[in-house]
């Protein structure tokens, strides 16, 4: 190319064209600023963004959750059998979308990584115009996306996140959590394992070395020490270790008689199976049978761990075998659609989508300010967990927590966990201020 | 003392896995001069041979039982393993011993994978730089990994050891150290397997004429060529052997760590450190360094050691590598002239 041929006129012309091109997005942005709030739906549709791990260590949980979101969208639009829409008490949903607009959705892959999750959420908000983001199967991801949604004026209905920090020190006015947390797990499980294993126990913790592991270790330690248990050691293991033999060996002669595995997903599958291989469950220590506890359980992890979970105690947010109308309706819809019972990851996602839609209907607007007001202090029932409160102070749901145990003699491949106890919400409630953090003001601007 | 014995066993076990993978890596490097970053993927393919085999053997017939209902009200599917239905007790035995039997399946599969990989891709990169070899083999590893992930999902898939080998052995009684030192049978089996395979490969190279020619080719490819021997074909065979060794190591590893798509990469970096510490291209160096680093890593993870030096278990291998390379730049048993110009 010969640059000497570019004369002043051509240069000016092309500059003007390029300039106009560059300015175009700004014109649209300034147009959107003129709206009352970020991504206000103006057409016949409203877009929800579902941000789940579709690859990475928690992919199986994410995929299950995504199926539930699809089901929720169908039911909101009046398609299918309606699922929990038929049992939801406190609902003003009409089955004709949200505020008369048909619900559509876009999905993103968090890869169980905070940066990837933020990138996919940003894409859904900026390009697809999502008005609400839901999903996540990791506390690291949930905390990161929650703060992004706060900054961009979008509502975040978190999926599976169990760290105390999500509605504790990292809570945000635009973010809401239906799932329970590590503190509640500790309060629920401690009396049960105290009853089963005695008050005079010595516990050894192996903990996944990141935010969720730390808060779970702290919560379980506090709860079991209140029982009278002694904590012998708490050893941190790097995320994604495959071989835990070097961490399990010191447990054998540490004087401990209980091993508490603060691991999740693949890590839990490997550490639990290996602990069983090392004969920990056949061992005697301090004159007692050695026991293993996995404070946070999921059905999908139980499938991965195989026989190793038999008899092991843990806690769960929800189980498809619960005897209530909402659970039955959801299990039926999900089972007919996908051929398996839904996991707790699926249920929490489904419920969050319904709760968001209902809050918009109650508020009569998609404006986050109205949605937040409708959800704060909202009491509802019939969504599978019994009477539930969305606490205004920290946007945490309070409902009964399940203590579950790996089934000794499963009737079929769906029947892996049994519910030992439903611990009432009052017993796992706490003062909203103990984990610090500030909700701050609601943000509605892009 | 108990913990010392157990950590020693852990170290030997881990070392066995390192040695098996590093052995293949260094064989390929020594003969073909190729730095094969897809070697970890071969280990993973082996592990998935066990998954496929145990799934095949557990293939079920599905009948619908209209009497029994699923939780959502449709008729329940009743599943019976085919082999058990056909062969009775022998079928049950096959299901039980699916992992050891997978070794038989893995040998032909890994041979084919190894031959295809060498003939189909790697031979075009013999004369390229190491950087280009690393790029292409690393790319290949990612492709294999993604294929496995797309086919089997991202969750680890549990594969069980035969129930006769899934408990623990009373190692303390064997060693006369009293009661209470138990070690999983399967890990002991893995250690024995590693020892046998390492012994066989070294014996093959040292004591067979075929192996002798291969070794001669490693020293001076041209001269062996002048003698009228098709050394290239022998090297292809060596590549296939390396693939089989990695694959078998993967099969045997499945009851210890549930196979997942990322397991190859997890081992790869460590295995390269083992090769470098042992000496590039030295088979016995790789074996020695594998066991040495495995044992050191285990001892570094004892709580007594970590209390004094927190985090030492994470870095010990790299610290050793630094020290070895500073004092013995060719590695423990490295020879002059390898990777030196």
Automatic annotation (TrEMBL), chain A:
Q: Which domain of life is it from?
A: Bacteria
Q: Which SUPFAM superfamilies does its entry note?
A: Periplasmic binding protein-like I (SSF53822)
UniProtKB keywords: Amino-acid transport, Signal, Transport
Q: Is Transport a UniProt keyword of this protein? A: yes
Pfam annotation, one family: Peripla_BP_6
Q: Does the keyword Signal apply?
A: yes
Chain ranges of the Leucine-binding protein domain: 47-408
Tell me which family the UniProt entry assigns to this protein: Belongs to the leucine-binding protein family.
Extract the PANTHER family matched here.
Answer: LEUCINE-SPECIFIC-BINDING PROTEIN (PTHR30483), PERIPLASMIC BINDING PROTEIN OF ABC TRANSPORTER FOR NATURAL AMINO ACIDS (PTHR30483:SF6)
**Name listed for the protein in its UniProt record:** Leucine-binding protein domain-containing protein
Give the source species: Nitratireductor thuwali
From TrEMBL, chain B:
Could you tell me which InterPro entries the record lists for this protein? Answer: ABC_transp_permease, BCAA_transport_permease
UniProt keywords, alphabetically? Amino-acid transport, Cell membrane, Membrane, Transmembrane, Transmembrane helix, Transport
Q: Report TM segments.
A: 15-35, 42-59, 97-117, 129-148, 188-214, 235-256, 268-296, 308-328
**This protein's superkingdom?**
Bacteria
Q: How does it sit in the membrane?
A: Multi-pass membrane protein
The record's subcellular locations are: Cell membrane
- Which family is annotated? Belongs to the binding-protein-dependent transport system permease family. LivHM subfamily.
According to UniProt, the name of this protein is: High-affinity branched-chain amino acid transport system permease protein LivH
What organism does the record attribute this protein to?
Nitratireductor thuwali
